[in-house]
């Protein structure tokens, strides 16, 4: 059926509508190709090349601006589109070739477990930290849950062994090992010096343990790895006459010797609150950094791996947003969490900002949907998905049980 004209009412499937000026069509059915503006479209599998449309349905490919979309799993190209949540799914938009959709949500099961405080992924598994989890008669000993990526079933769980050790405060993985931060761990007569525990992936046996060297060091606040080194944040470390300026320790993977240390430059800035690495750069969060007249707006510093010189810095834009609390990178983008960001009339709902690696321009922003959920508490990425933690999310009548939201790219 070929339809030419304006204000048409179209009922049926596999319709093709195309003229130089087709506007204000009312379309019912599936697999329509629609070229025009101000159409009302109800159905699935439509290809829409226009603007100002109201769209109900699923699996639509939409090329245009200022569309009102109610449905799930739509592919959207354009700017300023508005999505209505439908069937507990939400559409997320971007530009060029980056498409972001909500795929899955995982939740903590215990009051104040702070599920989603840390996250890491490999080819087969998803690793999620819950530093506030209580088990075996202990309080806040913490837990790391390992999920199968294909169906989100629980494969294994690792637990902290002491009260208040915050096991699971950070996590990273490589081909052979799991690296878990215990930022609240006490050892050698010190308080909260922190620990990093390294587990064999094959049997979950402990291979090695590394410890902070100061009281309130909080060693293990963050962790990242590459082929040769382990990068560990200590947000409470004091140095150069400063308090809680923070530190990043770079450790040789082969013999656990310290290769270098990087330090924060402001009191209480919490340098090392997050860390990520790629082939050439180290990305370090400083979530309490004050800049541009903004208090605790936060900052992310990018260092050259070869000489540790500063390549670039990104900054938060609001007071108390805690920009740089989490960070992840892939081949094209930098993902930075701001868990205390306020938007949409909500406080501390949080935000994740995506930057283009080539020019540091903002590509997209994702936001939390609940008051004080702290969306952006953690972030990890793989080839297909973005994993974002909301450590203070409330669900199922639980408080601060936490959530991990998984988005398709």
Structural account:
It is a single chain. The two termini are 35 Å apart. The protein has two domains: 2-93, no CATH class; 103-408, Integrin alpha, N-terminal (Methylamine Dehydrogenase, Chain H, 7 Propeller), CATH 2.130.10.130. The strands form eight sheets. It has a six-stranded parallel beta sheet with strand order 1-3-5-7-9-11, with no helix packed on it. The protein has 409 residues and is an all-beta fold. The relative contact order is 0.09. The chain contains no helices and 37 strands. It has strands at residues 2-3, 9-11, 16-17, 26-28, 33-35, 40-42, 47-49, 54-56, 61-63, 68-70, 75-77, 82-84, 91-92, 100-107, 118-121, 125-130, 143-148, 154-159, 167-173, 177-182, 195-200, 206-211, 219-225, 229-234, 247-252, 258-263, 271-277, 281-286, 299-304, 310-315, 326-329, 333-338, 351-356, 362-367, 375-381, 385-390, 403-408. The radius of gyration is 23 Å and the shape is globular. The chain is 0% helix and 44% strand.
Q: What's the SSE blueprint?
A:
Blueprint: E1 2-3, E2 9-11, E3 16-17, E4 26-28, E5 33-35, E6 40-42, E7 47-49, E8 54-56, E9 61-63, E10 68-70, E11 75-77, E12 82-84, E13 91-92, E14 100-107, E15 118-121, E16 125-130, E17 143-148, E18 154-159, E19 167-173, E20 177-182, E21 195-200, E22 206-211, E23 219-225, E24 229-234, E25 247-252, E26 258-263, E27 271-277, E28 281-286, E29 299-304, E30 310-315, E31 326-329, E32 333-338, E33 351-356, E34 362-367, E35 375-381, E36 385-390, E37 403-408
Parallel strand pairs: 1-3, 2-4, 3-5, 4-6, 5-7, 6-8, 7-9, 8-10, 9-11, 10-12
Antiparallel strand pairs: 13-14, 14-37, 15-16, 16-17, 17-18, 19-20, 20-21, 21-22, 23-24, 24-25, 25-26, 27-28, 28-29, 29-30, 31-32, 32-33, 33-34, 35-36, 36-37
């Amino acid at each position: 059926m070929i339809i030419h004209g304006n204000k048409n009412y179209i009922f049926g499937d596999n319709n093709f509508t195309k003229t130089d000026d087709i506007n204000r069509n009312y379309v019912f059915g599936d697999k329509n190709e629609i070229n025009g503006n101000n159409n009302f479209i109800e159905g699935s599998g439509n290809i829409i090349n226009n603007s100002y449309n109201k769209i109900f349905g699923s699996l639509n490919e939409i090329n245009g601006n200022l569309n009102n979309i109610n449905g799930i799993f739509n592919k959207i190209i354009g700017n300023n589109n508005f999505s209505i949540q439908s069937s507990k799914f939400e559409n997320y938009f971007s530009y060029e070739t980056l498409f972001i959709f909500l795929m899955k949500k995982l939740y903590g099961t215990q009051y104040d477990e702070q599920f989603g405080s840390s996250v890491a992924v490999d080819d087969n598994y998803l690793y999620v930290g819950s530093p506030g989890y209580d088990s075996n008669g202990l309080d806040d000993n913490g837990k790391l849950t390992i999920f199968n990526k294909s169906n989100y079933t629980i494969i294994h769980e690792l637990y902290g062994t002491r009260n208040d050790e915050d096991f699971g405060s950070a996590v990273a993985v490589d081909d052979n090992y799991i690296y878990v931060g215990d930022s609240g761990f006490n050892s050698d007569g010190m308080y909260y010096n922190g620990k990093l525990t390294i587990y064999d992936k094959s049997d979950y046996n402990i291979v090695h343990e590394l410890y902070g060297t100061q009281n309130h060091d909080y060693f293990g606040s963050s962790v990242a790895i590459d082929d040769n080194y382990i990068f560990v944040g200590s947000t409470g470390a004091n140095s150069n006459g400063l308090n809680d300026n923070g530190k990043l320790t770079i450790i040789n993977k082969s013999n656990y010797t310290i290769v270098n240390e990087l330090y924060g430059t402001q009191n209480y800035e919490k340098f090392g609150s997050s860390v990520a690495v790629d082939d050439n750069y180290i990305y370090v969060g400083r979530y309490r950094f004050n800049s541009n007249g903004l208090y605790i707006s936060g900052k992310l510093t990018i260092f050259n791996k070869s000489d540790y010189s500063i390549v670039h810095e990104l900054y938060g834009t609001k007071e108390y947003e805690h920009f740089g609390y989490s960070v992840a990178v892939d081949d094209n983008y930098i993902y930075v969490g701001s868990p205390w960001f306020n938007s949409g009339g909500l406080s501390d709902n949080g935000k994740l900002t995506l930057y283009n690696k080539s020019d540091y321009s903002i590509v997209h922003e994702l936001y939390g949907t609940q008051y004080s959920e702290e969306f952006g508490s953690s972030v990890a990425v793989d080839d297909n998905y973005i994993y974002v933690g909301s450590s203070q999310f409330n669900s199922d009548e639980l408080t601060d049980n936490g959530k991990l939201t998984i988005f398709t790219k």
